[in-house]
Each structure stands twice: as C-alpha cells, then as structure tokens.
Design brief:
By secondary structure, the chain is of the alpha+beta class. Helix content is 30%, strand content 28%. It has seven helices and 14 strands. The protein is globular and about 80 Å long.
Length: 302
C-alpha cells in the first residue's frame, strides 16, 4: 500500500532534520578545546651550540617558547633564525649584574602586556606576557579584537627563573643544609611575588627554571593553590626524568628542576623533555587544551 505524503509535511520534517543535525554539530564542536603548545628552555648563558637549540625547538614545535639565560648574542641569533616561524620575539635583562639574568619570549602569536618584573629578593625577577588564542595568530596587536568566528581567550604567561642554589662541598652537610634553607626562603619570596601578579581565575601558565625539586617550596606552593604540573600529570615517576644535568665527578648530577604549571582551565595532552647538547638544561614542552568553560556550560544544558 502506498502512503501519500503531503509536500508541506516533507518540507517540515526535512527542516527538523537539518535543525537536529545542526544542534548535534554545535554540541560536538562548539565546545571544542583550543590547543596550545608551550615550552621552557634555559639556554645557559655560555651555550655556543645554536644548532642544538634550533633542533630542540624544531622537535617540539611549540607555539610559545620561554627562554631563560639568553644573552644579547643568542637573542639575535634566535631572532634571525626563527623570524619566519616565531615573528614575535621579546627579550629583557635587568641591570647587567649577572650573566644568567636575561629572559626571552619567542611566539607564533602576538604577545601583549609584556612586562619585566625586577626582583625584590633573589637575582632575576620574572617576565610576564599575555597570549591570546582563538583568533588569527598574526593579527597585529592593534587589531586584537578582530572576529574570526572563534571566541578568543587571554592567557597569562609567567616566565620564571628562580635563584639557583649556591653551596660549597667544603662546608660539609651542615653548610649545604644551611645554604638550601636560605635558597628555599628566597624562593618563597620569589613565588609569592609572582602569585601577586597573576589572577588565578584566568587561564594561567607559569613555566621556567625553578631551580627546585618538585617537593620544594615553590612547586609545592603552586600545587597547593591548584596549579597542575603538566609533565607529572602525564608521566609516571616524573622526577626520574631530569631536565638539568651537571658534570660532577665521579657521578654527574641530574635533576628535574624545570616545570610547566597551569590552572585547571587546561588539560595536559602531552609533555616531553627534549635532550640536546650545549646547555645544562633540556627543553621541556607541554601540549595543553584550553577549554572554553562557558561553551561547555551551554553544551551541557538539557
């Protein structure tokens, strides 16, 4: 038996189907996370292996690199070699007192609010920037609000280089313990100064050379406040993967002292240490998904 369908019913049902498919698309893709890859790399101010630095960067292919212990020479080298891929380069020093005092950013995306905060205690201070995702990465800062169809979000970036531990083997165990306690007190002041400058309710990434084991005061303080250690989230026994090594005899020292911490606005998808020669540190990178929490709330509505 043939059933007669009116054309108006067919058109109505057809548009209902299109509407349902559109709703599914919005629910599946409207709240899709935006991916970001960030890296930290202490270059060592005495590093002469620019080829190794470039190879590590190529391997990780981050969107943003935070350098510590850059020099005016290495900064010019990186500006020239990375100009096409990382057109947004910023660098700074303080008073020229320390070879290791400089910082740099190399970014595929426009950075705004770039600011060096000098130390109130300790040696190096820290370097701030705002990174905006969800728009054309190469839009000049004067056109940051340009609509690209994707909601943009501003991410706070803090490039960190905490004061290194200074001890003398001749001072024995008591001397080393005293020096470590002094360094920890300095780190407590340094990390508090950083925390005063960030809004933890906003997407934030704090990364760099902490000169600290994961159980020490600065990493511990961030974890207490809810910051996530990207590498530790994804790797079992994270402290067995050193980011720094020093050729002491008879046995070299190798420790994990570089970190990428992030707020819970992000989900860590991948994090690795890229080992290369030239610096005593290795490049550490993390791939993070930035969730649009407002979109997720909308998608979760009945």
């Amino acid at each position: 038996m043939m059933v007669k369908i009116r054309q108006s019913d067919w058109i109505r049902d057809h548009f209902r189907l299109i509407g349902a498919m559109g709703l599914v698309f919005i629910l599946c893709f409207g709240a899709q996370a935006q991916s970001l890859c960030v890296a930290t790399y202490n270059l060592n101010y005495g590093n002469r292996r620019g080829d190794q630095v470039l190879d590590a960067i190529s391997k990780a292919s981050p969107d943003l690199i935070c350098f510590q212990e850059s020099t005016t020479q290495s900064e010019q080298f990186l500006r020239d070699r990375l100009a096409k891929t990382y057109p947004f380069f910023h660098s700074v020093g303080h008073e020229g007192k320390y070879y290791a005092e400089r910082f740099a950013f190399a970014s595929k995306t426009t950075l705004t609010d770039v600011e060096f905060v000098p130390p109130t205690q300790g040696l190096f201070g820290f370097y701030l920037a705002t990174l905006e995702v969800g728009r054309d990465a190469r839009v000049p800062s004067s056109e940051v609000g340009r609509d690209t169809g994707v909601p943009s979000q501003k991410i706070q970036i803090v490039n960190v280089h905490l004061t290194p531990f200074h001890g003398n083997l001749k001072d024995g165990v008591l001397g080393a313990t005293s020096a470590l306690a002094s360094t920890e007190r300095t780190h407590a002041v340094e990390i508090d100064a950083i925390l005063k400058r960030v809004d933890e309710k906003r997407p934030t990434i704090i990364l760099g050379d902490f000169n600290s084991l994961s159980s020490f005061v600065a990493p511990k303080r961030l974890k207490e406040l809810g910051f996530k250690d990207a590498f530790a989230e994804l790797n079992s026994k994270p402290d067995s993967h050193p980011t720094w090594t020093w050729p002491t005899k008879p046995i070299p020292i190798s420790l994990r002292i570089d970190y990428i911490f992030h707020t819970d606005h992000f989900i860590a998808k991948k994090s690795e240490v890229v080992r290369r020669e030239g610096s005593d540190h290795f490049l550490l990178f993390a791939e993070l998904d930035l969730e649009n929490k407002e979109d997720n709330k909308e998608a979760g509505k009945p």
